[in-house]
């Protein structure tokens, strides 16, 4: 037996048959849940996801085909085998054409049924469903909700292909965590996983970040630079916030995906790349397309398969597991003895609104961990942290560093990357100002608009200034 622990949901209104079948399948090593109607099956599926549904066709109320249709919509990757005493060849053909995994006519041979079950399970769980090792791919993704189980089952299925995946979901729902998990479950797992946030990189820099550049391609290109496509060669590239990609780059990205080759800026040669693309967005790409901000041809290339992550409020049963997971992680990080949440504190967490999803939950748990003076986190602390949801716990040094960087970026944007003007506004001389830029790893050339960049002060000037200072 390839999957002895698989969970099967049985649906039949005949109690004797239900009992008999349950006993047979349990004896064969499966975990069996049995319900008498389609309605009961759907309620069951809302709380627990089996690996297979085995249903009679004739049922009171909704019949087995209607149940199948509903399962198709709500849990597309869940296989269904139908059983009937009234089976006819045309019914069977129709059912399998609609996507039912299999169809057996009663009385069926027990061996035939077990074979069918094995086949369905083998097809839908590409790796043998055997314990912990099989779960390693999603070890970082903590969840117990059936909605997430559904997303994960699909992710696991598509991981083995090279299909481009589009991950949709609000900010902080775990799109990047899921992208990593897909990479880990894929044949590319041993090759690099590279993530780039297309919304966080200035347009002038994004192209060279993605595709690379040759020395001298633009003012600050002091050496050849490999792009992220090449860095991810053989592996997976996550294009995060793809909805923020500027239109000019959308065209170039499309060409790279079509030709499976990149041409670094300033080079006349294309370099072949073998990269699986996962893109992610919290924006409504359909609306962006309708508004002419996102190319339709690129959309279809990126979106061979879509996975949508539910918000945290849509899967509240994940809140306690996530909160405890973060608590234990943070307790270890801060060297604190923290044992858990007081029951009323946990209740406050599970009933809160969570507009910032899992990221916000992490921030709240981080605050309460930092502030708690007792091993059990009290309600008052959780309430306080929930009232200030945006606050991230940073050390003074980290906060100062972040402020400095944002301040310098603001000045450079204001002055179009003119260091002399920016230094004057900051009340520092140029050499001091260059030092500050270097500390924050900022390059003024990135802030010049293209027309200015062509005639901008060469990078040598920056070097000279630093050298002068010794
Ligand atoms: N299921 C999960 N289990 C454990 N940690 C999670 C889970 N989901 C999200 N996180 C954590 O929450 C934070 C936000 O997750 P992530 O960056 O993947 O979200 P996102 O959807 O990509 O957000 P954005 O759209 O803002 O980029 C990260 O610190 C991540 O580790």
Automatic annotation (TrEMBL):
PROSITE patterns for the chain: RESPONSE_REGULATORY, SIGMA54_INTERACT_1, SIGMA54_INTERACT_2, SIGMA54_INTERACT_3, SIGMA54_INTERACT_4
Gene3D superfamilies assigned to the protein according to its UniProt record, in alphabetical order: 1.10.8.60, 3.40.50.2300, Homeodomain-like (1.10.10.60), P-loop containing nucleotide triphosphate hydrolases (3.40.50.300)
Domain Sigma-54 factor interaction, chain residue ranges per copy: 141-370
Chain ranges of the Response regulatory domain: 7-121
Modification sites for 4-aspartylphosphate: 56
Source domain of life: Bacteria
One example GO MF annotation: ATP binding
GO BP term (any one): regulation of DNA-templated transcription
SUPFAM superfamilies in alphabetical order: CheY-like (SSF52172), Homeodomain-like (SSF46689), P-loop containing nucleoside triphosphate hydrolases (SSF52540)
Transferase recorded as keyword: no
A Pfam family: Sigma54_activat
Transmembrane segments: none
Keyword line: ATP-binding, DNA-binding, Nucleotide-binding, Phosphoprotein, Transcription, Transcription regulation, Two-component regulatory system
PANTHER family in the record: TRANSCRIPTIONAL REGULATORY PROTEIN, TRANSCRIPTIONAL REGULATORY PROTEIN GLRR
Protein name, per record: Response regulator
Organism annotation: Ramlibacter rhizophilus
């Amino acid at each position: 037996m390839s999957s002895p622990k698989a969970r099967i949901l049985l649906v039949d209104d005949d109690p004797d048959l239900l009992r008999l079948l349950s006993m047979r399948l349990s004896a064969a090593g499966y975990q069996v849940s049995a319900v008498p109607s389609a309605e009961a099956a759907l309620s069951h599926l809302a709380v627990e996801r089996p690996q297979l549904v085995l249903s009679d066709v004739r049922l009171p109320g909704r019949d087995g085909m209607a149940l199948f249709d509903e399962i198709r919509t709500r849990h597309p990757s869940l296989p269904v085998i139908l059983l009937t005493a009234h089976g006819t060849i045309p019914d069977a053909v129709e059912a399998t054409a609609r996507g039912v995994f299999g169809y057996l006519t009663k009385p069926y041979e027990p061996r035939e049924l077990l074979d069918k079950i094995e086949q369905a399970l083998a097809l839908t769980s590409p790796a043998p469903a055997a314990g912990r090792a099989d779960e390693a791919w999603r070890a970082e993704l903590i969840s117990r909700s059936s909605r997430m189980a559904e997303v994960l089952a699909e992710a696991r299925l598509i991981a083995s292909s090279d299909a481009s995946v589009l991950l949709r979901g609000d900010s902080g729902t775990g799109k990047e965590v899921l992208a990593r998990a897909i990479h880990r479950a894929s044949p590319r797992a041993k090759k690099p996983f590279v993530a780039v946030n297309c919304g966080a990189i200035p347009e002038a820099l994004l192209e060279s970040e993605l595709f690379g550049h040759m020395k001298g391609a633009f003012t600050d290109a002091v050496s050849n630079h490999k792009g992220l496509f090449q860095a991810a060669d053989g592996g997976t590239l996550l294009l995060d916030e793809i909805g923020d990609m500027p239109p000019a780059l959308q065209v170039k990205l499309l060409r790279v995906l079509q030709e499976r080759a990149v041409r670094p800026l300033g080079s006349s040669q294309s370099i072949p790349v073998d990269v699986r693309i996962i893109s992610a967005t919290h924006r409504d790409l359909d609306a962006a397309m309708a508004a002419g901000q996102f190319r339709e041809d690129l959309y279809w290339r990126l979106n061979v398969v879509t996975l949508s992550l539910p918000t945290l409020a849509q899967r509240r049963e994940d809140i306690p597991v996530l909160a405890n997971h973060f608590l234990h992680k943070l307790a270890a990080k801060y060297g604190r003895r923290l044992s858990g949440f007081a029951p009323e504190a946990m209740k406050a967490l599970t009933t809160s609104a969570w507009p910032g999803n899992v990221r916000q939950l992490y921030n709240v748990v981080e605050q309460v961990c930092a502030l708690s003076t007792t091993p059990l986190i009290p309600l008052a602390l959780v309430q306080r942290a929930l009232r200030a949801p945006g606050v991230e716990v940073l050390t003074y040094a980290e906060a100062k560093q972040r402020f400095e960087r944002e301040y310098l970026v603001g000045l450079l944007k204001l002055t179009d990357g003119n260091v002399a003007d920016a230094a004057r506004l900051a009340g520092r001389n140029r050499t001091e100002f260059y030092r500050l830029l270097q500390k924050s790893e900022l390059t003024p050339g990135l802030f010049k608009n293209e027309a200015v960049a062509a005639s901008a002060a060469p990078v040598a000037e920056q070097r000279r200034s630093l050298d002068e200072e010794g």
